[in-house]
Structures are given as structure tokens and as C-alpha cells.
Write a structure and sequence with these properties.
The complex is a heterotrimer of chains A (237), B (354) and C (192). By secondary structure, chain A is an alpha+beta fold. Chain A has 6 helices and 9 strands. In chain B, the strands form 4 sheets. Chain B has an 8-stranded mixed beta sheet with strand order 8-7-6-3-2-1-19-20, covered by helices on one side. Chain B has an 8-stranded mixed beta sheet with strand order 9-10-11-12-13-14-17-21. Chain B has a two-stranded antiparallel sheet with strand order 4-5. In chain B, a hairpin with a 2-residue loop joins strand 2 and strand 3. Chain B has a single domain (12-353), classed as Metallo-beta-lactamase, Chain A (4-Layer Sandwich). Helices cover 25% and strands 30% of the residues of chain B. Chain C has 192 residues and is of the alpha+beta class. Chain C folds into 2 domains: 2-62, no CATH class; 81-160, OB fold (Dihydrolipoamide Acetyltransferase, E2P) (Beta Barrel), CATH 2.40.50. In chain C, 17% of the residues lie in helices and 30% in strands. Chain C contains 3 helices and 9 strands; from the N terminus they run E-E-H-E-E-H-E-E-E-E-E-H. Chain C has helices at 19-24, 53-62, 168-183; strands spanning 2-3, 9-10, 29-30, 36-37, 81-95, 101-108, 116-121, 138-148, 151-160. In chain C, the strands form 3 sheets. Chain C has a 5-stranded antiparallel beta sheet with strand order 7-6-5-8-9, with no helix packed on it. A two-stranded antiparallel ribbon of chain C has the order 1-4. Mean pLDDT of chain C is 67; it is low at 1-38 and 43-73. The chains are: A alpha+beta (237), B alpha/beta (354), C alpha+beta (192). Chains B and C meet through helix 4, helix 5, strand 8, strand 9 and helix 11 of B and strand 5, strand 6, strand 7, strand 8 and strand 9 of C. Strand 18 of chain B pairs antiparallel with strand 7 of chain C.
């Protein structure tokens, strides 16, 4: 039985050299990337909203996404229900700015999973980070997994790494469940590096758009497989 | 799992039509273990091309497929055809000559998924199939697809369509959707009526089969234009017919039955249902049955939604008249020995008498 | 490139590992000593030095950027939903008479469900998407479960795909691909 997250979201992050001032709700609407209602939503002068457009930072939200662009980073995160429209928006933005130097794109999927009991919660930590070594080092203290990240590279052990693309899987306790409930937070990062020129003549931004377009759903499928695999192997089916 | 039994004998001709309720594929045995595949659809059990599954099951080696024909680019006729093209690298690949043009090439390229995530699945399949080959052969009226002598019998597979007059209209349609700078990325509705389809005449010794693809009637470029040509009328009348365009009235005309077929041929068709379009209609079935008593369909199963009750309720709150597209997978197989007066027909899976 | 942050990470009210401190409900803040090299996981950005203090504070208050840790994701994203099923829909045809309905093809993104057809009334389409409804248009129908203050509610969202114009790079790719296709065409013999 596959494990289903209580909360599941995605973030598309890019590293590069951006001009945040151009990425306003008006610009997105004018280029057909978001609709009028979303643009109006982002433009609302509500103190609880986050509209901020300057040369150093662009940040705003709608009901379904939060966009934040700094001079060296782009981040588009889902809010509310996750939809493939998120990757369409990210790919669409990069297609509109083909000359933007982008050095990497990350496709991220994050989930908070509720666990049935405290024992199960500890079991996840015990399997992924066995406590024995820490008990021997600190016999009179209590220990627990706070943060585990595993890096997966595209090469067998001992062989040279031919690409800077990689995946990173993170496990942390979840901070979303209260009142005696326990949960684990899993994050999946699929990192694509563009510092090495591609085989076609696409610019880095066009390459980023293509990667997002073609790989986002694959990464999502893989993230679900990995999350389910981690929990299954740690807890059992 | 369907048990298709043994392969045909060397001196048997065979036509097998596969249909999952949305989609169509044909496997033709030309004798002596030589096969022709036309179009492709997916077997829902194996999630792989149905004709490929069939040939594997009856023990046909990949090298025995001599030709693969994509009769046109619509999704329901080419699902999995790129996999067939890869699986049978020695088989020559044929497609409508409409695609031997700059506009059509750009059309396939634009909607292939290479430069923008696939907007038209059929275009993507055809593009992938062509891309995997060193060469492909565009065919039109009078093109020879395959010519051979098998067991001292002459085998000739020829294309009866598309007619040259069909090209201009098809290319004009595709040109509307060609990408241009600063133009929005649009989706492509299918061109109707379909005039770019490849109709095949298969002549094996003294037997013949007519494969009607999705060609529709039109005075200048459809069935009647093709049959008006003396060369077309000179083809050996077929004793088995894959009914054109899912038995629709737009894919039919009397001249087909009077000029290209023997009386009471074996006729088989695949149903088609998408949105509010359901083929064949009851009137279509009646019309085909009046032309031959030997009429069969690959599928007639229930189209009830296939999902758990929770999902069905959630979806049903928003979406009405939910129906499954792949309404039961079936196959109609007809075999006869060379020179024998009649076909032996078998029905597999959801196939039934029309 | 090094992205670093000097902002403390809040681990939230949930304390890890120590049953005693959990019972006490203590809340710890940990100041990270982290270097992240070109990471693309959801990170809290370094605020530019020349950003006005007021702007910096406003940013922190109004837009709670994701937390950072060494190339790891952030737990504090604002979503409160999980998708149960996402249907990618294609509009087959549209009947705009009397309220309007669109006939659609539905392809499930989660699980291996067969393709279905159906009808959706146009009142389900957001005003901003109405002009996008045409044969061939693609939309996403997300059916999700939302957890809010301990209660669970079912939500649904129908959103049309938006594609900007074809880019120069795409047009170049298409031209190259079209030339490749044409180069493979050969002429068949003709019957007499």
C-alpha cells in the first residue's frame, strides 16, 4: 500500500543571473503566462501579501503559487493543490527570457507524511541513522535523527563522475503534525547542471525550459517512488 | 490473456484486426511467414503495441515483418508505432506522402515533443518512428509498398490513396498550426474529412484484401475520386475488407462495395468513441450488414468508468457522462488457404459479430 | 557559486529525538553554519546587502521564504494540500449554448487508470481561462485533500495550460527536425 503524504508540494529553483525587476505580475499577464485573476490577486495591496518588485528582488504570490526571484536565484513554489501548471509557468517564464544565464535548475518535491505512532516515528530514524554509534559516544544522552541528506550521483562508485547532475534526498522530522501526532518530512531535489554546454544549440534558459517541460513529471514520479521506498523499507508495508 | 493459438500455415493468408475501443492495428500474413503491419494500437493488458504482442505470442520472429505502414497520423492509429518501428528494424516504413513536404515536416517536428512537450500524441509517435529510421517511404495513389514472390505466388501491396488532390487541403490545415515567432502555441484538432489516409490493396496470388484506413468520401480526393481512376478499378476485387473510418457513413460509398470488393466479403471494423462521437452508429451497423452477412467488430464491451468508487464520486461531481475510452480489447482474425473459396473467422477478447 | 544564509532556522515546535524535551515542548533555534554550492533545492535566499532594512524586514514579514539547510528542501512551504488525483484533460469540442459544456478526454496522472471521456460544464472554468477553451486545449483537474486546523476537506481545481509564444530556440529546433525528417524520405516505385 503506497504511503500518501498529508501535504505535498513542489518547488522549481534555478540558479543564474536574473533581473528581478522584469518579473512582475503585469509582465506575466501580458505574456500570457498567468490569467487576469491571478495577476489581480498578486497585485493586491494587502499587507499579508508579499508583492515586492525591485531591481534586487521580485516576490509575489497568488492562490496557487509563490514566486521569488533574486539576482542569483529563481524560486517558484506551489501553494494549495499541486498542478502541472506550475512547471508550465516555470518553463514559460524561461522561454520568455531566453538570454538569461542559468547555470542550474532544481526540480523539488516535498512531502509531510503522518506516521501512525511514536514507535514508528522512531523506527524511521533508527533505520536511516542507527542510534548504536551515538549511544556508544554519548551513553547518557538521547539521540535522534534531525536531518539526513543523501546525494545520488550519475556514476557507479569508483567511476569518474561525468555530469554535475545529481539528486539529493532529505529526511527530517516533520513540523506539521501537532497534538501528539508524529510525522516525517521527505524532500527530493533533482539537480540539473548547465555549466557544461549541451549537445544542441539551445541557450541555458531554453535548456532550463526544456528540462522543466520534459523532466518535471518524471521527477515527481521518481520522488513518489523514493518516498514510498524509504518509508516502506524503514517501516515495512 | 488472449490465447491466439498457432501461427498461420505458409500457404495461408491472414488478416487480423486489433481494437481496444479507441485505436486500430492490423497484421497481415502474406504467406511463407512474411508479415505486413498497418497502424498500431496499445494492448491494455500489456501496455505495448497489440500487433507486436500478437506476433510474439504466435511465435513470429521480428525479422519476418517486411513492412510497416502508418496510414495517417491520428493518435488512434499510431499509438506505439514508434515501438514497432524499433522492434522491426528490417521492415520498411511507409507513411502518407502528404508528409513529404516542408510544411508537414515542420508540423510533425513542432508537435513531436522535441521542442515543446507533446501537444499531439500522433505527431509525436510518427516523428519518433521516422527519427529512428535511416529512411522512410512516403506513398500515395499507385505507390508499390511491397512486391515479392512467395511460394511461387506473386505478392503485390499497393497504395490506392492518398490522391494528389488531397495534398493541398491537408497541407493547408497543417500550415494553420505551424509555429511562428510570437504566435501562441496552439493545439491541433484533427482534419475532417480525412483525405490523407493510406488505403492499401493486398494482392496475394488470386486473393486480395482491402484495408480502408480512415479514408472518407470526397468527390475530388476521397473514395469516389480514387475509384473513378481506371487503375484503382483494375485491382483484383477483395474478399476481405477492413471497413474504412470505423464504419461511418462519411467513410463509405457504394462504389467501394461494387468496384473494389467481391459480393459478401468478410468485413471487420474497429469502433471509435470520443466525446459525443460514437462510431459505428446503429445506422452504420445496419448499412454494413446489408452489404455483407460476414461483418465483425473488435470491441463492443461496456464503457462504464473504470476507477474506484471514491475517485468516481469525486470526479463525477464535476464531470458528467464519464465513459471509458478503451472499452474492451478484441481481435478479429480471418484466415484462408490460397485459392480456398472462403475465410475462416475467429473472434478474440471483446470482438463480436457486428 | 556559494549561496549562504545568516538567517536562523526555526525547527518549529516539534523537537526531534528526545522524548523528555518533547514532553517539555521546548523549542530550539539552531543557527546554521552552512555552505551551499549552487544548490537548487528550495532555499532561503541571501538578502542583498544593499536592500533597505525596512524592505528586508518587510520581506521577512510578508513573504516567508523557504528555510535553508545544506542543499536540502524546506519544511515550511505554505501548501496545505496533497493531490489525490490529477487529470490531464483535452477539450474535444465545446458547446456554448445554454450555459455551455465541453466534451473532454481525461488522462489520469496518478496511478494506471484508463483514459476516459466526459462532459464538464463551462461554469467550472475560471473566468480568466474562459477564452482558452477551444478544441485541443489542455487543462489540469486536480482533486486534492486539504488539511486545515485538523479538519480535512476535499478540494478541486481546474486550471488551463498556458503556453507563451514559440521561442527562437524552439523554432530553430523545429527547423532542424523538419530538415532531418525530409532528408529521410525516399521515393517508392509506382505501379503501372
Amino acid at each position: 500500500m503506497p504511503y500518501t503524504a498529508e501535504i505535498f508540494a513542489s518547488a522549481i529553483v534555478a540558479v543564474g543571473d536574473f533581473n528581478p525587476a522584469i518579473f512582475s505580475p503585469d509582465w506575466l499577464e501580458r505574456n500570457g503566462l498567468i490569467g487576469k485573476d491571478d495577476a489581480d490577486n498578486a497585485r493586491e495591496k494587502d499587507p499579508s501579501k508579499s508583492l515586492l518588485i525591485s531591481h534586487q528582488v521580485a516576490a509575489f504570490e497568488t492562490e496557487w503559487f509563490a514566486l521569488q526571484i533574486l539576482e542569483n536565484q529563481f524560486s517558484l513554489t506551489s501553494k494549495a493543490a499541486l498542478s502541472p501548471a506550475l512547471k508550465d509557468l516555470a518553463a514559460g517564464i524561461f522561454q520568455m527570457v531566453p538570454h538569461t544565464p542559468i547555470t542550474a535548475v532544481g526540480l523539488n518535491f516535498m512531502g509531510h507524511f503522518k506516521l501512525p505512532s511514536e514507535d514508528t516515528y522512531h523506527k524511521v530514524g533508527d533505520v536511516l541513522a542507527p542510534k548504536d554509534i551515538w549511544k556508544s559516544l554519548y551513553p547518557d544522552r538521547s539521540h535522534g535523527l534531525a536531518d539526513l541528506t543523501v546525494r545520488i550521483q550519475y556514476a557507479a562508485r569508483g567511476e569518474p563522475v561525468k555530469t554535475n547532475d545529481e539528486k539529493r534526498i532529505t529526511v527530517q522530522p516533520s513540523n506539521k503534525f501537532k497534538f501528539g501526532k508524529f510525522g516525517v518530512y521527505l524532500a527530493y531535489n533533482d539537480h540539473h547542471d548547465f555549466t557544461v554546454a549541451g549537445s544542441n544549440d539551445l541557450s541555458p534558459a531554453e535548456r532550463a525550459a526544456t528540462v522543466i517541460d520534459t523532466e518535471w513529471e518524471n521527477s515527481w514520479t521518481d520522488a513518489v517512488r523514493v518516498f514510498d521506498g524509504i518509508l516502506s523499507m524503514a517501516i515495512g508495508n | 490473456m488472449i490465447d491466439y493459438g498457432a501461427p498461420p500455415a505458409d500457404d495461408q493468408i491472414e488478416i487480423t484486426l486489433f481494437g481496444p475501443g479507441y485505436g486500430e492495428a492490423i497484421a497481415v500474413h502474406l504467406g511463407c511467414g512474411a508479415w505486413l503491419l498497418v497502424d498500431s494500437c496499445i494492448d491494455p493488458e500489456f501496455r505495448a503495441p497489440a500487433s507486436g504482442i500478437y506476433l510474439d505470442q504466435i511465435g513470429v520472429d521480428a525479422s519476418q515483418v517486411r513492412a510497416i505502414v502508418a496510414s495517417h497520423w491520428h493518435d488512434d492509429h499510431v499509438r506505439g508505432i514508434s515501438q514497432l518501428a524499433t522492434k522491426h528494424p528490417n521492415a520498411e516504413f511507409f507513411l502518407s506522402a502528404v508528409f513529404n513536404s516542408k510544411e508537414a515536416g515542420a508540423f510533425l517536428a513542432a508537435f513531436s515533443g522535441n521542442s515543446s512537450a507533446g501537444l499531439a500524441r500522433g505527431a509525436k509517435e510518427l516523428f519518433s518512428a521516422i527519427q529512428s529510421r535511416e529512411a522512410v517511404t512516403p506513398v500515395l495513389h499507385k505507390s508499390i509498398v511491397l512486391e515479392a514472390t512467395l511460394s511461387n505466388r506473386p505478392v503485390m501491396v499497393t497504395a490506392l490513396s492518398p490522391m494528389p488532390a488531397a495534398f493541398a487541403q491537408s497541407l493547408a490545415h497543417m500550415s494553420q498550426y505551424l509555429p511562428r515567432k510570437a504566435k501562441p502555441i496552439n493545439h491541433i484538432p484533427e482534419l475532417r474529412p480525412n483525405r490523407e489516409s493510406v488505403v492499401l490493396h493486398v494482392n496475394v496470388g488470386e486473393d486480395a484484401i482491402l484495408l480502408g484506413a480512415d479514408l472518407e468520401e470526397d468527390q475530388t480526393s476521397g473514395w469516389s475520386a480514387m475509384i473513378a481512376d481506371n487503375w484503382s478499378r483494375g485491382r483484383r476485387p477483395a474478399t476481405a475488407y477492413k471497413v474504412a473510418h470505423h464504419g461511418s457513413s462519411t467513410g463509405d460509398c457504394r462504389q467501394i462495395w461494387e468496384n473494389l470488393l467481391t459480393p459478401d466479403p468478410v468485413a471487420c471494423l474497429t469502433p471509435f468513441s470520443l466525446g459525443d462521437l460514437r462510431l459505428p452508429t446503429e445506422a452504420d451497423k445496419h448499412r454494413v450488414r446489408t452489404m455483407t452477412p460476414h461483418a465483425y467488430t473488435t470491441s463492443g464491451a461496456s464503457r462504464r468508468p473504470a476507477m474506484d468508487s471514491g475517485q468516481l464520486k469525486r470526479l463525477g461531481d464535476i464531470c458528467k457522462k464519464l465513459a471509458r475510452v478503451d472499452a474492451g480489447f478484441g481481435a478479429v482474425r480471418a484466415r484462408k488457404h490460397f485459392g480456398s473459396p472462403s475465410w475462416s473467422t475467429e473472434l478474440f477478447g471483446a470482438a463480436r459479430i457486428l | 557559486m556559494i549561496l549562504s544564509t545568516d538567517t536562523p532556522i526555526n525547527l518549529g515546535s516539534f523537537i526531534i529525538g528526545d522524548p523528555i524535551s518533547r514532553r517539555q515542548g521546548a523549542r530550539r533555534e539552531i543557527k546554521p553554519d552552512i555552505r551551499s554550492i549552487g544548490g537548487t533545492s528550495a532555499v532561503r535566499p541571501k538578502l542583498p546587502n544593499n536592500t533597505a532594512f525596512g524592505e528586508r524586514e518587510a520581506l521577512r514579514r510578508r513573504f516567508d521564504a523557504p528555510m535553508t539547510s545544506s542543499l536540502a528542501g524546506s519544511r515550511d512551504f505554505t501548501s496545505d494540500s496533497t493531490p489525490l488525483q490529477i487529470w490531464e484533460g483535452t477539450v474535444l469540442n465545446v458547446d456554448r449554448k445554454s450555459g455551455g459544456v465541453m466534451h473532454v478526454l481525461l488522462d489520469a496522472k496518478i496511478g494506471k487508470l484508463p483514459i476516459h471521456t466526459g462532459e464538464i460544464e463551462l461554469e467550472w472554468v475560471a473566468d480568466q481561462d474562459y477564452d482558452l477553451v477551444c478544441p485541443g486545449a489542455v487543462f489540469y483537474l486536480t482533486l486534492s485533500k486539504r488539511t486545515k486546523r485538523g479538519s480535512i476537506e476535499n478540494t478541486q481545481e481546474l486550471r488551463f495550460r498556458r503556453r507563451p509564444s514559440w521561442s527562437e530556440g524552439q523554432l530553430r529546433q523545429i527547423e532542424n527536425d523538419a530538415a532531418m525528417l525530409l532528408s529521410k524520405m525516399k521515393t517508392p516505385p509506382t505501379a503501372t
